[in-house]
């Protein structure tokens, strides 16, 4: 059954106590068995059939999936934003390297404050980048500016707004407040970083604040993982490309390509448009076979369901390996994972809402892991429900499009989008994120706390 260079059989042990939501599809018999298990039944999102994988179990499966790492390369610091760090970074020196002034003012020795009655003789002027050479004399102060190295002997800085300067007997003097504590307005050497501090770990994605830390220790070349080559392929005879195809009866413009390309752009990948493939097995097999030779990852939308015009599973089985994940979630339900040689393939649903949510929940963590990044669960914000669900089907995880609005007392409230169709791009535009309802939640009353996954936490670029 397996064809193609590098193709090999893969088989998973069944789960104890029932059907496994993963199908071993490597032979004609496997395909026949899968067809029987997916026979039509009740007209429902969770019709009888295979045991469906829970959301958490699916995440665990994806996290355990073995993935190769991209090679290591070096990039200039200016080009490192968003890249995946390939090695640890340790501070080679203290930051700052010396005690410095935190404000514009006057530096002095705190032990001289009471004996001098708050009066000091001015004997130096110190600006940032121009450290003084001489130690501060007893009962003397130095005019100092923010970031300047403290003179030897000084340990405290008085803000210039709190001081009075003048000339007495031809000598420049300054009066500082007597209430200052020792060490006020002084930044200690190593206050930000001490030599030997581990700043970053392999797998960290570099943020603007991380680049600032790398700059502060003088690094100008950063070891990172090479960007993944990700191809996006849309499938379906009905699809048209805006600006390239004229409208026709039954045609739909390919919104998924631009949706998924925008989401993928927030990952450490270089995106290639693989175009649209019609609903023909031979065409899809040719497209995926050629694309696999030039990409690390391929993400498809559509063609992954049970219909006669859905060929993704059969094509992946012929070219390499395939896993079908039937999920107990809404929207979404099905995710197809494949491998052609060393190229991973992720098959997403064709409806835009299901495609986006499946990408954010499942494809994005897999892409980040494939890129060498450390993946952590997104933060969930507990908010008040601004809606009522008196009764809902249990046994599946639901992700409802919602936006956050302030309630009467200022508490954030999640309002659900009025309609729930999985083809409504308008619902994605109106939402700030997703209200997540666990499998055992049978109802939701207004004001009840519900977990909210913001699109920002899920990596959606602003």
Automatic annotation (TrEMBL):
Q: Which SMART domains match?
A: MoCF_biosynth
Q: Where is the signal peptide?
A: none
An example Gene Ontology molecular-function term: molybdopterin molybdotransferase activity
Q: Name one GO biological process term.
A: Mo-molybdopterin cofactor biosynthetic process
Cofactor(s) needed, names only, are:
Mg(2+)
| InterPro entries membership | MoaB/Mog-like_dom_sf, MoaB/Mog_dom, MoeA-like, MoeA_C_domain_IV, MoeA_C_domain_IV_sf, MoeA_linker/N, MoeA_linker/N_sf
GO CC: one term? cytosol
Q: What does this protein's UniProt record list under function?
A: Catalyzes the insertion of molybdate into adenylated molybdopterin with the concomitant release of AMP.
Report the sequence similarity comment from the record. Answer: Belongs to the MoeA family.
Q: Write the protein's name.
A: Molybdopterin molybdenumtransferase
């Amino acid at each position: 059954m397996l064809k193609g260079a590098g193709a090999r059989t893969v088989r998973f042990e069944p789960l104890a106590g029932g059907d496994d939501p993963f199908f071993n599809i490597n032979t004609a018999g496997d395909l026949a068995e899968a067809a029987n298990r997916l026979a039509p039944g009740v007209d429902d999102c969770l019709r009888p059939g295979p045991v469906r994988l829970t959301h958490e179990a699916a995440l665990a499966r994806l996290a355990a999936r073995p993935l190769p790492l991209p090679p290591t390369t070096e990039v200039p610091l200016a080009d490192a934003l968003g890249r995946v760090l390939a090695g640890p970074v340790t501070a080679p020196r203290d930051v700052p390297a010396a005690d410095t002034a935190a404000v514009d003012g006057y530096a002095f020795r705190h032990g001289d404050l009471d004996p001098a009655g708050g009066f000091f003789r001015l004997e130096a002027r110190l600006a940032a980048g121009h450290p003084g050479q001489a130690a501060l004399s007893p009962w003397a102060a130095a005019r100092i500016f923010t970031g300047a190295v403290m003179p030897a002997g000084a340990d405290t800085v008085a803000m210039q707004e709190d001081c009075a300067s003048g000339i007495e007997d031809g000598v420049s003097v300054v009066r500082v407040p007597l209430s200052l504590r020792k060490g006020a307005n002084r930044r200690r050497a190593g206050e930000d970083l001490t030599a030997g501090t581990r700043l970053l770990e392999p797998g960290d994605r570099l943020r603007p604040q991380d680049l600032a830390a790398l700059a502060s220790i003088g690094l100008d070349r950063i070891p990172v993982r090479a960007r993944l080559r990700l191809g996006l392929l849309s499938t379906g005879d009905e699809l048209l490309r805006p600006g390239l195809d004229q409208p026709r009866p039954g045609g739909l413009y390919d919104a998924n390509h631009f949706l998924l390309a925008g989401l993928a752009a927030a990952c450490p990948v270089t995106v290639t448009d693989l175009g649209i493939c019609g609903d023909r097995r031979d065409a899809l097999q040719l497209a995926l076979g050629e694309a696999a030779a030039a990409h690390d990852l391929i993400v498809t939308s559509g063609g992954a369901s049970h219909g006669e015009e859905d060929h993704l599973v059969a094509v992946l089985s012929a070219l390499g390996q395939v896993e079908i994940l039937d999920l107990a979630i809404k929207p979404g339900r099905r995710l197809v994972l494949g491998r052609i040689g060393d190229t991973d393939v992720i098959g997403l649903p064709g409806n835009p809402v299901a495609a986006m949510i499946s990408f954010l929940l499942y494809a994005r963590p897999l892409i980040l892991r494939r890129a060498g990044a450390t993946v952590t669960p997104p933060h969930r914000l507990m908010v008040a429900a601004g809606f009522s669900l008196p009764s809902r089907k249990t046994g599946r995880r639901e992700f409802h499009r919602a936006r956050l609005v302030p309630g009467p007392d200022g508490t954030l409230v999640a309002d659900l989008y009025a309609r729930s169709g999985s083809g409504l791009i308008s619902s994605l535009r109106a939402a700030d994120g997703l209200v997540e309802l666990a499998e055992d939640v049978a109802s939701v009353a207004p004001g009840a706390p519900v977990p909210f996954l913001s699109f920002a936490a899920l990596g959606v670029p602003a």
